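In response to a reviewer's request, we include the raw inputs and outputs for one of the modeled complexes. The four entities were modeled together in a single run.
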Amino acid sequence: MYDMAPPRVLTREQIAEAALRLADQTGVERLTMRALADELGVGTMTLYSYVRSRDDLLDLMVDTATEPVAATPIEGHWTEQIVTLFSALHEVLTKHPGLVRARMTRPFNSPGVMRLAERALSVLQAAGMDRQEAARAYRTLYLFTLGCATYGGHSDTAQLRRDLEALPSTDFPHVAAHRDKLIYTVAEAAEFRYGLRLLVTAMSAYVPPPTNRNPQGGTHNPVG
Amino acid sequence: MYDMAPPRVLTREQIAEAALRLADQTGVERLTMRALADELGVGTMTLYSYVRSRDDLLDLMVDTATEPVAATPIEGHWTEQIVTLFSALHEVLTKHPGLVRARMTRPFNSPGVMRLAERALSVLQAAGMDRQEAARAYRTLYLFTLGCATYGGHSDTAQLRRDLEALPSTDFPHVAAHRDKLIYTVAEAAEFRYGLRLLVTAMSAYVPPPTNRNPQGGTHNPVG
DNA sequence: ACACGATACCGTATGATGTACGACATGGCC
DNA sequence: GGCCATGTCGTACATCATACGGTATCGTGT
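The model returned the following structure tokens for the whole complex.
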């Protein structure tokens, strides 16, 4: 058996980190295989021994970025646990603005997200939901989180403002009156949490004891 | 003044319709300027007398697709009106699967969406919300709708199923148990409505008469 | 009737991209 | 020392959006 060869000069982790850094700095649209290879000091085609394709690279980036979500500690009432979990996902996704957009072509099955699903489903069932309800609730929370992370921030606030100001106030009186509040900026995370709390509040109606309250870690059981 | 010229052989409307048709048939990734021009029987560059760029074409497609939303009739309790409005948006967006994804790079300021914003804000304020609350509620509903439309359906259900089945049941017992329910297929619209109703139900707590109910057109006032 | 010139159409060219192909280098094993 | 699997990467190619400039068309002014 002749199975040894020259040592690998990179790791997938290094590639993922460099790709995330580059994407954050210059935008995902500027993240080309050539640019990334240059950044790493290797030839373009070398990257293809680590990732199958550019899509695979984006997968790897999502995996790396969402990985810390799985480690988020949760405690308190189940509603609080849910808010904490999805806030962690939201935070991680908004930290790399272009990533969600670039990757949205495919469903998100990254390990980090799957771990999140596992924990969220566990919490929801422990809170008293049956399978059908828990799955539906999870998907709703998940889609809301992705929607906020994807569309919540405006890449070009000035452009949005110009667009809104261009609308005739006579035809759009309410939009004109709300203009400033429709431009979502620093309040992004706060507004996300507002919606999240609305959802879990409404979902509380689906669990057996409608006004149940025990103020510390009542219903959580670990995953295993 | 010599300002006449050969008649235009196309209209923006024809281009938008052909582009939507092509995108629906072959996927947005196959919607190239060449392919669209061939479909319309003109040279590639001719398209550039009607649209500034490919991005502009996508804008035009979104505008065309979302235009009918503005005409959706709404009636009944304000919660019903809100559900109807955003369901119309959701329906129109999911009718052209790849479009939302392709266009999500920029914020959605299409006329149809702005008309929707106008009507939704009107309904929310008429229901008793103040400006701050109405704007926040609108944005939440809007982001939820976009999230569902963007990520709700899975382009490749078989692939998702394979991914889910590949997960070790020991590490992901809840995901494994919920597997079928996590694959969102025909129930997409129903699940969206479930989330929408959760949101408006929870929002009801923010309007003055908490259990107000008048069963026909109580609080809606027209836009103008 | 006829020339003018503004405008629409489109053939061609350019530069960027992802990636296939195959040459070359490396280093452990016979 | 020769062998060959493996990792690296220069080059080449197909495909894309789109800039440029030539050509065709037609209402207008004479």
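As requested, we also summarize the result in words. Chain B has eleven helices and no strands. Chain B touches chain A through 60 residues (CB under 8 Å).
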